[in-house]
Design brief:
With 273 residues, this protein is mainly α. The chain has eight helices and no strands.
Length: 273
Amino acid sequence: MDKPNSFASAFRNALVKHNENARSSSAPDASDNSKSFADRANAPIAPSVAGLVKSFDSTPEMKGLLNSYFGIGDFLAELPGMTPNQVAQMADQLDQLNILLDNLPAIEQNLRSYIEGVVKYHEFVNRCVKEGVSGIKKVDQSVLDIFIAHKGYLGDQKKLAADSSTAVAQIDNEVENYVDLQEHKLQAALKRAAKKLKADKEKETAKAETEPNEKPVEMVAVLDTRARLRRLMQYGTTSPKAFTPMKSAAVERESGVKNGTAANSVFEFLSGK
């Protein structure tokens, strides 16, 4: 950086000295001095050398490379024919470069900080994406678990409904069978009772048809004795009525056949007839 600065300073000093010599050798008129300075500033600095530079004749591509890399190929070839103002433009460009060079450390630090910031941001995004992917997997797994649990719940509900329907149908069938059985038992019991009642009726009918209507002789004798005792207690021992002769059992049977049953005769005896 010292050499370009020295070159620029030396060039400026030489240009100032050249202008001062031009002013001192010109007419004393101020307007003439200004005109002479402007003319010299726009005149080639070495017109006699212009066109004599052969450096790039054999290698014209070199001038192109210098232009491509530094922008000075044409400047070197055309420098003798340039005016001081044109050369001064190179000094201006050098000043611009010096300003850039002076600020390169700060610019470099800013670029590094910027690059580091961009890298950190990408690393941040990378971490977030990884964490997000992990979270997505967990969320998807959770959704899948809930879906499977819900499917299992629906399946259990269907199983319970089927089991419940089967159990209810079985209970209904058992109740219906029980009711049918009880009704059958009732009908059977009624039939047995009716059959027994019919058999008992038939038995009683048959028994009534086979047994005699008269009371046995022993029963008639007992009734006669009771009648006599009753008369005795009613009329006393002195009354002839207490000793009224009783009809014999044979007479009673014959009388019963003619006038009624033996039971009627006994009723008459008990009634005091």
